[in-house]
Design a protein that fits this description.
It is a single chain. The two termini are 17 Å apart. The strands form three sheets. The chain has a five-stranded mixed beta sheet, with helices on both faces. 41% of the residues lie in helices and 23% in strands. The chain contains ten helices and twelve strands. It is α/β, with parallel strands linked by helices and 315 residues long. Helix 1 packs parallel to helix 2 and helix 3 crosses helix 9.
Length: 315
């Protein structure tokens, strides 16, 4: 059986098809929303427009790779997080497309959340089946979240910590746009940071499992004004995020000793952050490659779970 996942976040339109018998992704595609040079993201009305415009062509592209008549359930992210009051208009584009598809085919529609998609994609990518039914500590680190979660699969999620102000992805993007890079700027900041051979000592603000990242933006501006190179400042920014996550993880492990710590979300695709965290957290797991951001994959996996067609998630 095949399941289709649709995710329309504020940064990208994503689709994925999952084969429940093989337990693997058949195909997926992703398109970043266009952002004008110098801007920090999009208005929700613009994001909704771009998703609505992109979905027909992307669905046609997917139809050339897989037989849509074999799709027996569709999952879609209907809101950012599984909490009361969580809402963003951009997800309406995905819900509309998913609803039309399922009504035409008379198949189940599974509404879930963007964050749960990240968690499910992370668990799938790690290839450890037992993690779907075991407690884990999961970091969801992106442009809209810096959340530390106690998870039991992707169903039971208990928030443990977060940022009290700026999110990690916002700090990276603001630095990147300041330096003239396109938005989202994570790839460009990471490339610059890799050029720096100087030693960097990150200064962070963490209390228990709660962090503050608003000061990081000011620190980066000050370092540039003091004459530090772009590469140095980019490295400083990323290592501050890495050190922040390490301290939050250690605070969580003091209460939940022995649990695996999983890092997901677009920010965690940074090799520099991964290396820094790995050296300080032996029990850390990272989502490889595209799984770090393509959570339409996780959405399609969750659709398989809800329709009880993938044994790993249906027990």
């Amino acid at each position: 059986m095949l399941t289709l996942g649709i995710d329309t976040s504020n940064y990208a339109t994503s689709l994925a098809v999952f084969d429940t018998k093989a337990g693997e992704v058949v195909c997926d595609c992703k398109k970043f929303l266009p952002v004008k040079q110098g801007q920090l993201g999009l208005r929700q009305s613009d994001a909704l427009f771009h998703h609505t415009s992109a979905l027909p062509d992307m669905m046609a592209e997917m139809a050339n790779k897989v037989d849509f008549t074999q799709v027996e359930a569709v999952g879609v992210s209907a809101k950012p997080r599984p909490v009361e009051g969580s809402y963003m208009p951009c997800f309406l584009a995905g819900v509309s497309a998913a609803t039309a598809f399922t009504l035409a085919r008379q198949i189940p529609l599974i509404k879930t959340t963007h964050q749960q998609g990240h968690i499910a994609a992370a668990l799938l990518a790690l290839g450890q089946k037992e993690l779907f039914s075991a407690p884990t500590l999961v970091f969801h680190v992106s442009g809209g979240t810096t959340d530390l979660l106690l998870c039991h699969g992707a169903d039971t999620i208990t928030p443990l910590g977060t940022s009290s102000d700026l999110y990690a992805g916002q700090a990276v993007d603001r630095l990147g746009v300041l330096l003239g890079y396109p938005f989202p700027a994570g790839t460009y900041v990471s490339e610059q940071a890799a050029l720096c051979t100087e030693k960097v000592r990150p200064k962070v603000s963490v209390r228990g499992m709660t962090c503050s990242l608003s000061g990081l933006e000011n620190q980066c501006r000050r370092l540039l004004e003091e004459g530090h190179s772009e590469a140095y400042v980019c490295k400083y920014c990323l290592l501050c995020i890495g050190e922040t996550l390490v301290r939050m993880a250690n605070a969580a492990l003091a209460q939940y000793a022995g649990l695996p710590v999983i890092f997901a979300g677009g920010v965690m695709s940074s090799d520099l952050i991964r290396t820094y965290v790995t050296h300080r957290l032996p029990n850390a797991h990272f989502v490889p490659g595209k799984y770090a951001s393509d959570n339409a994959i996780g959405i399609s996996v969750l659709a398989a779970k809800e329709t009880k067609t993938w044994p790993i998630l249906s027990t």
